[in-house]
């Protein structure tokens, strides 16, 4: 009997403790479900393009003059196997992540060049180098292809540089938010209407195309515009070269797809957009 009394006393003490804790604790709010909506990541409305820093860029004319005078050290940041194929004479091959450790370069005027893509990383590195005490770090719009077209100074298999102008769908998707882009559809009118950060224009491949395009480029309010040519007819690309030489733009690319590029673009877009959601309210439970 004595042990039973102690047992019941212990049970009552436990119940009292639980009741007291419940009474003093703040009432728990019921869980709220997040109101979510799908976010399209390749439109200027939902995700504005990353603005490019104009102050980091030097004109090709000025870069060539400094290079010929020996006042410019060119750093090619591509992979060694790419550098071995073709390169600017007297350029140095160094990866971006090693540059800040090369203190002997601090007093020199540097020009960083790549394949004409991945500007976000290139710009951030150039800015970081200048902030860490490097004398001068600049870039050229269009990278190696632009240098080759303007100066014709390239060692190695110069013809291989033509491949840098072609961009796969996957590469374009990764670059599409670092713009702005001016997409020139040379195929059927209205055949390219994928969401990009920029403007899509339908043009026919003829002499008036270059005049119209040059006027449009000149009127662009945003500088450092990147031009992308697309077509659902692969034969158009073969006829494009003579017209490119007449353009007043150094940073142009060609989407390296044929008639099936739209399907591939949409497929890549679906993969990139899968499970990308945002909460309409911050205080909610996913």
How far apart are the first and last residues' alpha carbons, in Å? 54 Å
Q: How many separate domains make up the residues?
A: 2
CATH class of the largest domain: Alpha Beta
Q: Could you say what the CATH architecture of the largest domain is? A: 3-Layer(aba) Sandwich
Give the helix tally: 10
Compute the CA-based radius of gyration. Answer: 29 Å
Unreliable segments (pLDDT under 50, ≥5 consecutive)?
Answer: 21-47, 275-282
Sheet-strand content, in percent, reads: 15-25%
**Biggest sheet character:** 5 strands, parallel
Q: Which secondary-structure class do the elements indicate?
A: alpha/beta
Kindly report the spatial arrangement of strands forming the biggest sheet. 8-12-11-9-10
**How do the SSEs run, as a string of H and E?**
HEHEHEEEHEHEEHEEHEHHEHE
What is the molecular shape? globular
**Could you name the CATH topology of the largest domain?**
Oxidized Rhodanese, domain 1
Q: Percent range for helical residues? A: 25-40%
The average pLDDT is 77
Number of strands: 13
């Amino acid at each position: 009997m004595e042990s039973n009394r102690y047992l019941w006393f212990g049970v009552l003490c436990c119940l009292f403790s639980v009741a007291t804790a419940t009474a003093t604790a703040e009432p728990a709010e019921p869980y709220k479900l997040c109101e979510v909506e799908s976010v399209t990541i390749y439109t200027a409305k939902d995700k504005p393009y990353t603005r490019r820093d104009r102050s980091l860029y030097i004109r090709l004319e000025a870069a060539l003059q400094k290079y010929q005078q020996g006042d410019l050290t060119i750093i090619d940041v591509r992979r060694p196997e790419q550098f071995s194929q073709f390169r600017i004479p007297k350029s140095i091959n160094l990866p971006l992540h090693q540059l800040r450790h090369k203190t002997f370069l601090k007093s020199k005027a540097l020009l960083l060049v790549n394949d004409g893509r991945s500007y976000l990383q290139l710009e951030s590195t150039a800015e970081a180098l200048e902030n860490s005490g490097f004398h001068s770090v600049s870039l050229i719009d269009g990278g190696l292809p632009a240098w080759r077209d303007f100066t014709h100074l390239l060692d190695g298999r110069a013809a291989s540089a033509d491949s840098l102008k072609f961009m796969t769908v996957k590469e374009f998707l990764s670059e599409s938010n670092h713009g702005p882009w001016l997409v020139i559809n040379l195929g059927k009118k209205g055949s390219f209407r994928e969401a990009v950060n920029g403007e899509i224009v339908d043009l026919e491949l003829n002499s008036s195309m270059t005049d119209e395009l040059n006027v449009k480029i000149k009127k662009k309010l945003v500088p450092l515009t990147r031009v992308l040519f697309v077509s659902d007819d692969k034969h158009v690309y073969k006829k494009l070269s003579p017209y490119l030489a007449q353009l007043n733009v150094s940073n142009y690319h060609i989407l390296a797809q044929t008639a099936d590029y739209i399907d591939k673009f949409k497929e890549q877009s679906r993969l990139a957009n899968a499970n990308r959601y945002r909460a309409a309210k911050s205080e909610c439970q996913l």
